[in-house]
Amino acid sequence: GQNIDQPTEMTATEGAIVQINCTYQTSGFNGLFWYQQHAGEAPTFLSYNVLDGLEEKGRFSSFLSRSKGYSYLLLKELQMKDSASYLCAVSDSNYQLIWGAGTKLIIKP
Amino acid sequence: GAVVSQHPSRVICKSGTSVKIECRSLDFQATTMFWYRQFPKQSLMLMATSNEGSKATYEQGVEKDKFLINHASLTLSTLTVTSAHPEDSSFYICSARIGQDYNEQFFGPGTRLTVL
Fold first, then answer.
1. A77 pLDDT exceeds 80?
2. Share of chain B above pLDDT 90, in %
3. Phi and psi for B86 in degrees, rounded to 5?
4. Mutation site for B-interface testing, chosen from A37, A90, A105 by largest number of B Cβ within 10 Å
5. pLDDT in tens, B68-115
6. Measured between CB atoms, does A101 come within 8 Å of chain B?
7. Which residues pair with residue A36 across a beta bridge?
8. N or C: which end of chain B has fewer CB within 10 A?
9. Rounded distance between C-alpha atoms, residue B19 and residue B21, angstroms
10. Residue A67 contacts by C-beta under 8 Å, 6 or more apart in sequence?
11. Residue B44: Cβ within 10 Å count
């Protein structure tokens, strides 16, 4: 079967750095997405990785290792507004998104 | 950027009535649209995949006669929840994809359905 695993909840301090991990087992791979979702709102796109390595975009970076079936989202200089759920999703061989359950990130002052 | 709208954003209805939710791609043509449902504190659950001009493909456990999907044009898909019941209360989100080989899905803002 297809499976995406990510921690249920994480807590971090304002101004700090946090890494959210995601491991996956899917039938085929056409890229991995990270989305941010605030409570009561739709997901918004953060990043897309299809090749191994680190993609940096401002305070957010995403890493992919296809051989290990592993990705992480790195958030730097955390702000209170970063409190949200972070969803990992993998595009499978049919370009269907397989979703993780999401990681709720709690930022404390 | 690619913008997807949903209407209505919030709807409250009585049990037994039908509710229609519209999903529109505003500045691009969407060959494929997806309908998701999300219950509180849970992740997105794909309900169905809709390709323009053809019947929707429903995920296992989703009743196609209860959740009617129409994708009549490249910019509009509708989801009709027929004979809604309180257990259908949820956050319904649509997304749209430009082409088969273009991976990213663009999400609408979601529709909060409450069935009394």
1. yes
2. 69
3. -50, -35
4. A37
5. 999 888 899 999 999 999 999 999 999 998 866 667 889 999 999 999
6. yes
7. A44, A86
8. N
9. 7
10. A52
11. 25
Report CB contact under 8 Å: A45, B104.
Answer: yes
Q: Which two tokens stand for residue A36?
A: 């941010």
Rounded to the nearest angstrom, the minimum Cα separation between B65 and chain A is: 23
Amino acid at B50: S
Contact A95 B101 (CB under 8 A): yes
**How long a stretch of residues is chain A?**
109
Judged by a CB distance cut-off of 8 A, whether residue B44 touches chain A is yes
Closest CA to A81 of A34, A38, A44: A38
Phi, psi of A82 (to 5 degrees): -80, -5
Q: Which of B88, B95, B66 is nearest to B11 (CA)?
A: B88
How far apart, in whole angstroms, are the C-alpha atoms of residue B27 and residue B105? 14
B35: amino acid identity, one letter:
W
Say if residues A105 and A83 touch (Cβ distance below 8 Å).
yes
Residue A9, token pair as written in the block? 């909840």
Distances (CA, A) of B12 to B3, B15, B90, B114: 25, 10, 11, 5
Phi-psi sector, A28: left (phi>0), alpha (psi -120 to 50), beta? left
